[in-house]
Amino acid sequence: METELLVALAADAQTEKGPDAKPEPVLLVADEALKAAAAAVLTGGEFKAGANETLLMHAPAGLKAKRLLVVGLGKLAKIDGNAVRSAAGTAVRFAKPRGIREVVFLLPFSELPVGSVARAAIEGALVGDFDPDTYRSDRKDKSIEQFSLVATEAGREAAEAGFAEGVILGESQNFTRMLVNEPGNKLTPTILAQRAVEMASENGLGWEVHSTEKIKELKMGAFWSVAQGSEEPPALIVLRYEPEGVSEGPVLGLVGKGITFDSGGISLKPGENMEKMKYDMAGGAAMIGAMRAIALLKPQVRVVCVVCAAENMPDGKAQKPGDVQTAMNGKTIEIINTDAEGRLVLADGLLYAKQLGATHLIDAATLTGACVVALGMINAGAFANNDESYAKFDQALAVSGEKFWRLPLGDEYAEMIKSDIGDIKNTGGRWGGACTAAEFLHVFAEDTPWIHLDIAGMAWVENAQPFIAKGPSGMAVRSIVEWVRANV
Ligand code: BES
Ligand code: MN
Ligand code: ZN
User: Cβ(369) to ligand 1 under 6 A?
Assistant: First the structure.
């Protein structure tokens, strides 16, 4: 094949352990010419086929391709869609800085189902193509212009279907990342709402945007208590997906935290790393990105999305520790720490989603530092008041490949947020902070099947990886979409 860059995958077939066990890289291709071209380097010992390890050959003998890039998947016995997703991202991030604009990716010759591997590959490629340097004056667009997949003739149909889905998921995830990447001055609550509306109009979703007046009219005292401390008006963003002919069955409610900047408010955060708090709308952006994918994938189930967008600022009108606020359902909240603002906006968001008819809820939020302490930047936290709904989320994770770890709710945690002056307080002390925050939300989700995703540590990539740039990750988009599809 004539191409700038041909990408083939390899895995390590070595199964033994011990000091004498040497890696056995095998190329996952059927083509003899390709195998021959790579034979010498593969036996040479310098390439071990470790995960995302790369080996470049120029003008490979007997091939028409200008270059052959071999990307490792790790141990052969453990390869899965995730390994292929990362490898495709690695290939793209290898090509980008070298000015290579065209890539041909050979799907691995393996036992893995072609459709899901094709989907993972194009998702990985699109995610790998994203760079966050939007505002650099010398920014050169080095995006890959053409990325092709090669499958066997027998796998064509499955590969094409997987490819089409993967494009939707990957582009939606990047849409979310683009929003999350925007700084607070460029993406106020009002502008976030405008972006959501543009996306909704382009993709045939219903939408409504409300601000201060309506928020007060709806008696969203918890949401407003955060918004009142900023000069920037809040935005209550509602997106609707209503497939034709579906008038029965569940209504899925997607609720997102959209704090476009979190200074902490009067309980001001320390200056160090405060600039990162522009990504405190990542949960809301994940929901907006998920709605984009849902609009394009058209599952047969109704979905309503509510994003509560505001700035958390220490203005003269800002709320103070000790204040008591009343949420939309009349529950009173004692404010202990104005930096625990996410749960306040989500309280009214969850209630509003139910008012709009949601029978099943899922929320996403960069909610607690405690969740990052508990799980590191490896897993995001997940909570649920309903095992059946969570089972569907687990199913979704098997498809999305994203890492979430279920954490506990419980009456003992609920006890920790009882208030002396009102119904509940907005922090439960130092210990178990992710769980008490989840129990706070539980007060508003009540018995409606509900899943809460705490993506605080996972919405931003701290260290660049071979397959993804440093910056916004777009975490949760793919899992939310799959959860929606699991509910059809
Ligand atoms: N947005 C933060 C949580 C966060 C922390 C997101 C780190 C991303 C990375 C949230 O609003 C917050 O400030 N939470 C406080 C709650 C505390 C005051 C109970 C926290 O986690 O420290
Ligand atoms: Mn905060
Ligand atoms: Zn916050």
Answer: yes
Q: What one-letter code names the amino acid at 29?
A: V
Answer yes or no: are the C-beta atoms of 457 and 407 closer than 8 Å.
Answer: no
Asked if the model's pLDDT at residue 355 lies above 90, the reply is yes
pLDDT greater than 90 at residue 436: yes
Range with the poorest average pLDDT among 18-32, 73-87, 206-220, 315-329: 18-32
Q: What is the pLDDT of residue 332?
A: 99
Phi, psi angle pair for 7, to nearest 5°: -115, 125
**Which atom belonging to ligand 1 lies closest to the Cα atom of 267?**
18
Nearest ligand, CA of residue 368?
Answer: 1
Residue 77 burial (CB < 10 Å; 0-12/13-18/19+)?
Answer: exposed
**Cβ neighbour number for residue 40 with a 10 Å cutoff:** 10
Question: Are 294 and 269 a contacting pair, CB within 8 Å?
Answer: no
> How far does residue 240's CA lie from ligand 3's centre (Å)?
25
At 167, the pLDDT band (50, 70, 90 cuts) reads very high
For the full predicted model, state whether its pTM sits above 0.70: yes
Six-digit token pair at 138? 């010398």
459/1: higher pLDDT: 459
Question: Which of 337, 339, 473 to probe ligand 1 with, by most ligand atoms within 8 A of CB?
Answer: 339
- CB atoms inside a 10 Å sphere around CB 410: 13
Ligand showing the shortest atom-to-Cα distance for residue 458: 1
- Residues with catalytic roles: 269, 343
Give the Cα separation of 482 and 50 in Å (integer): 29
Instruction: Say how far apart CA 138 and CA 136 lie, in whole Å.
Output: 5
